[in-house]
Specification:
This protein has one domain. With 91 residues, the protein is mainly alpha-helical. 56% of the residues lie in helices and 9% in strands. InterPro entries: Na:dicarbo_symporter_sf. One of its GO terms (molecular function) is symporter activity. Keywords: Membrane, Transmembrane, Transmembrane helix.
């Protein structure tokens, strides 16, 4: 059906479809960010470290920069990184 259309109309339809896909992805991303901010998953939990005496605790809330750094660190598995960095030879 679309093969019978003029090239200019096909281009307009392609741009409309591309714009629709991009706008729906952006709307979904903002909806997900809004819901995540609303329910605050993990907000009840903090990381804690006990000192050797067992009495004092240092609590720290996870920051957004920690999340992004972990995300980028985990994009490539450790075994792939080790494969490129270290070599083992057998004799």
């Amino acid at each position: 059906m679309s093969s019978k259309l003029k090239p200019s109309v096909q281009g307009k339809m392609a741009l409309l479809a591309l714009g629709y896909c991009v706008s729906m992805n952006i709307c979904g991303a903002f909806l997900g960010l809004g819901i995540t901010a609303l329910i605050d998953p993990g907000g009840r939990f903090t990381t804690s470290v006990e000192k050797s005496d067992g009495l004092s605790k240092v609590s720290r809330k996870v920051e957004i920069s920690d999340v992004f750094l972990d995300f980028f660190r985990n994009m490539i598995p450790d075994n792939i990184v080790r494969m490129f960095l270290f070599s083992v030879s057998f004799q």
